[in-house]
Design brief:
2 domains; Rossmann fold; alpha/beta; 260 residues; 9 helices
């Protein structure tokens, strides 16, 4: 999941609260369209709860109806990046991801999204394609591997669990690691040499993806292999050339940046 490196190494004053540039390529040719932040995220991060506007509010120029947290979907015409215009601060990311998928997280999410608990139970089993990842990476690695799983949660989805001499997890969730893995801090990451860095299903959660990539790059040695995985979201998979994806993306949840 999300980690603290951005705040530790870069001044937050340089970051826009509401993005006017693409967080991927820094471009300004952006299409935008109204959207909402899903109630679970708005509540957990901002303590903004959905509400119902009715006559008792006494609003003369506002129509009655449901009120949700508004935002914009942004589609960069330079690189194709699709993203939420609200760029969460470090403290807001802490609120969203500290204790990720623990009892309090699941209780609140189940309130807004009935059935989530069952889905979370399935997610906790881990992904089924780790062997495919290992087959993809194996020709490029020396074994036993020295692994850093950046944002790796408990390590349940780390490849080469049985073919490593070092297995570090760097993550904000504060969860205990699976057997064989060690949760480490940034100081340990900075002082350790790895030949495989895994960053799987992390970038889509990050408000400043370029900075995260640079942070990871600084931990790489000449022979370090970096494996990045992001979800191939339906909106990207089904997109046609030159389509305005901002107008199709009407809600935002934990995934706030979509790859082109």
């Amino acid at each position: 999941m999300y980690n603290k490196t951005i705040a530790e190494n870069r001044p937050s004053a340089n970051h826009e609260r509401i993005a006017s540039r693409c967080p991927c390529c820094n471009g300004t040719d952006l299409l935008r369209s109204p959207a909402i932040i899903m109630p679970f995220v708005a509540d957990r991060v901002f303590n903004w709860k959905p509400t119902r506007i009715d006559d008792s509010w006494g609003l003369k120029t506002i129509s009655n109806g449901n009120a949700y947290a508004l935002c914009n979907s942004m589609h960069c015409q330079g690189c194709g990046f699709l993203f939420l215009d609200v760029r969460f601060s470090e403290s807001e990311m802490e609120k969203l991801y500290s204790g990720y998928r623990d009892a309090a997280y699941c209780q609140l999410r189940e309130l807004y999204e009935p059935g989530y608990q069952l889905r979370n139970d399935s997610l906790n089993q881990g992904v089924a394609y780790i062997k495919d990842i290992e087959s993809f990476l194996e020709p490029h690695l020396r074994f036993p591997a020295r692994i850093l799983d950046w944002g790796g949660d408990t390590g349940k989805n780390t490849p080469y669990k049985e073919k490593n001499s070092l297995w570090h997890i760097y993550d904000i969730s504060n969860k205990s690691a699976v057997a064989g893995a060690q949760v480490v801090n940034k100081a340990t990451v900075d002082s350790t040499e790895y030949n495989l860095i895994v960053c799987s299903n992390v970038f889509e959660h990050i408000p400043q993806p370029r900075e995260l990539l640079q942070d990871i790059r600084e931990q790489m040695w000449n022979d370090t292999i970096l494996y990045i995985e992001v979800p191939f979201e339906d909106i990207a998979r089904t997109a046609i050339e030159n389509e305005n994806l901002a107008s199709k993306k009407r809600h935002w949840h934990e995934h706030i940046t979509f790859s082109p």
